[in-house]
């Protein structure tokens, strides 16, 4: 299925948000996740299914003022 | 001082726009800051190095909601920050206009109400408006962070009278000047006016020598705080001789 990952189109077979993170190789504890504009806590990623067109954000600590 | 946390240093430092990670690391150290602000952005290269800097600094992390224009964006960002940084502290920015970066006070109060109810310790980036300040306190905020001038403008305290009135209006509320500070003298003035701390970023990061500028700000803020505690003399319209007239010789021939 095709999803939107951090603003870019992304093809994935990952059934859940947790699987997607494994697939991308991102360190799971180093990011916070949101699905369709809603925060998904770390513990809920494995039970959060992805669907066609889902908008996923993987956010990390960055410089800020 | 801030949600039960006492700080020895009254400078809070932003971590953006430094010429290199090494300079950022040295500037944090030179500033003596115990609180540094960070943001949440899309995962990309270089993240590990930044996380190490945060960890090594030993500073308390104050995540921001920079760039959020709506209540929902800000609340979601706060949720994500709380998990990622393991802190209830959140610097709440809800921007009303992309050009002026002026806070949207209506959305700010609404987002603050939601986050305070969820147990966040909210540091709202606001204006010097007293009524907005009161609404934020009602919403559960225990700190207010009025701007000195628009973010990144370096103009200093643009409305000194308004800020003075805010200090007088909220004698028990910790007040932090957030944004707009360009020079150590401006930060010192904020402290002389009785503000509890200063949060700044660009003035240090964009200095020719950020590490030395961080030290300059630290000293200015310490001096301003001392001056406030010492009690400034009232200004006068007219001159008043400081040397006594008594005992002066008659030397006119």
Automatic annotation (TrEMBL), chain A:
Pfam families: ThiS (PF02597)
Family matches, as InterPro entries: Beta-grasp_dom_sf (IPR012675), Mopterin_synth/thiamin_S_b (IPR016155), Thi_S (IPR010035), ThiS/MoaD-like (IPR003749)
Name of the protein this chain belongs to: Sulfur carrier protein
Species, as recorded: Celeribacter baekdonensis
Organism classification: Bacteria, Pseudomonadati, Pseudomonadota, Alphaproteobacteria, Rhodobacterales
From TrEMBL, chain B:
Domain of life: Bacteria
Active site (record annotation): 91 (schiff-base intermediate with dxp)
Gene3D superfamilies: Aldolase class I (3.20.20.70)
Keyword terms, alphabetized: Cytoplasm, Schiff base, Thiamine biosynthesis, Transferase
Quaternary structure and interacting proteins, as annotated: Homotetramer. Forms heterodimers with either ThiH or ThiS.
Function of the protein: Catalyzes the rearrangement of 1-deoxy-D-xylulose 5-phosphate (DXP) to produce the thiazole phosphate moiety of thiamine. Sulfur is provided by the thiocarboxylate moiety of the carrier protein ThiS. In vitro, sulfur can be provided by H(2)S.
InterPro entries in the record: Aldolase_TIM, Thiazole_synthase_ThiG, ThiG
Protein name: Thiazole synthase
One cellular component term from this protein's GO annotations in UniProt: cytoplasm
Pfam family, one: ThiG
The reaction(s) this protein catalyses: [ThiS sulfur-carrier protein]-C-terminal-Gly-aminoethanethioate + 2-iminoacetate + 1-deoxy-D-xylulose 5-phosphate = [ThiS sulfur-carrier protein]-C-terminal Gly-Gly + 2-[(2R,5Z)-2-carboxy-4-methylthiazol-5(2H)-ylidene]ethyl phosphate + 2 H2O + H(+)
Record pathway: Cofactor biosynthesis; thiamine diphosphate biosynthesis
An annotated GO BP: thiamine diphosphate biosynthetic process
CDD domains assigned: ThiG (cd04728)
Family designation: Belongs to the ThiG family.
Annotated positions binding 1-deoxy-D-xylulose 5-phosphate: 152, 179-180, 201-202
Originating organism: Celeribacter baekdonensis
Domain annotation Thiazole synthase ThiG: ranges: 3-244
Molecular-function annotations in GO: thiazole synthase activity
Subcellular location: Cytoplasm
